[in-house]
Amino acid sequence: MDAHSQLRGRWRLAALAAAVLSACGGGGGGGDAAPTPTASAPSRPVTKSDLQIAQSVYGSGPRTPVGFYSDPPPSGHGYVATMHLKNADVDAAAVAPQPLYELCTDDWNQAFDWSELGAQNAPQYSDLVETNEDPRYFEFGRVRQGDPPFYVRSRVFKCTYLDRADTNLRAAAGAAGKLNRRPLTASELRDLSEYLWQFTQYNNVGYAVIESGGAATAASLSHTLHIGKLARGGISASCDRVEVIAWRHTLDTTTGTLQLEATTLWSFGAHESAGVVSLCSG
Asked: Is 251 domain-assigned?
C-alpha cells in the first residue's frame, strides 16, 4: 500500500472513532455543527445521572448528600421552625424594594431586644422559654401557643462571625456579607454555604441538593451547591421540568467578603407515576 492509501485509511479510522464517541455523549445538549478537533466538551459537574437527580427532587431519593450540614431540631416539640431575625422583623419601614438582610450583633442584650421586638411584631406572639448561644449566633427559643404548640428557634448572627448588612435577600445573587471568623478556610466556607441553604427557597419540597463541593484560587475560595429544582408541568401536561442550578458562594480570602451567584446549568424532562420516577422520552 502506498503512502497516500495509508493516509486515507487512517483518516477513515479517525472519522469512525469520532462518530462512535459522539453517539455515546449525553447530558450537555447537542447541535448540528461538529466540534473542532481541539475543542473538548465540558465535564459534567455532578456524578449523579439525570434520573437520580429526578428521583431526589420528587422525594424518592436523598434531599442532601452524605455528610451535608445538619441542624436537627430539639426533641419534645410537635413543630419546630428556625429563623434568623431580619431588619424587616424589627423595622416596619424596611419593606420592598429596600434590601432585606439578617441582623448581627455581638451584644446579647441587643440580640434579645430584637428577638422580643420581632415576637411582638409577628402576627402571633411567641413566649420566650429558653436561650442558647453558639459561636455563630445567639438563639432565643420561643413557643407559639396552639395545638400542638409551635417552637421557634429565633437566631441573631454574631458580627464576629458573619455580617450580612450589605446583603439583599430579595435578590438571587450579589453581595453576600462578610465572613469575620479567622482563619478563612474551605471548611469554614462549606459550613456557611450549607448552613445558609436552610433559609432559602431551595430548602423546600421539589428541591434537592445534588452535590456540595469547593474550589480555590490564589486569592479566593468558592463553594457550590448543585441543586435540582422541580417545575410541575414545566414541559407539558405529562412532563415536568427539572433544572440543575449552581448556587455558589465566593470568598475573598484577604477581606472576607462574600459574593453569591446562581446559574441554571441544564434542564431535562421527567415524570412520576405511582411512585416510579422516569425521564420523559423523545
From this structure: yes
Q: Considering Cα of 249, then 252, then 258, then 259, what sign does the dihedral take?
A: negative
β-bridge pairing 174-179 and 162-163: antiparallel
- Please report, as a single letter, which amino acid is at residue 245: I
pLDDT tens by residue, 30-46: 344 444 444 555 688 99
Cell of 259: 459574593
* Tens-place pLDDT, residues 126-168: 999 999 999 999 999 999 877 778 999 999 999 999 999 999 9
Q: How many CA atoms lie within 13 A of 137 on its CB side?
A: 22
Which neighbouring-strand residues pair with 257? 178
C-alpha dist (Å) from residue 213 to 157, 191, 192: 24, 11, 12
d(CA 198, CA 200): 6
Location of C-alpha cell 432559602: 200
Q: Provide the residue count of the chain.
A: 282
| Residue type, position 226, single letter | H
Range of the domain at 185: 45-69+166-282
- Indicate whether this model's pTM tops 0.85: no
Question: Do 101 and 146 lie in a common domain?
Answer: yes
Q: Using CA atoms, how far apart are residues 258 and 277, in angstroms rounded to an integer?
A: 38
Distance CA(196)–CA(45), nearest Å, equals 22
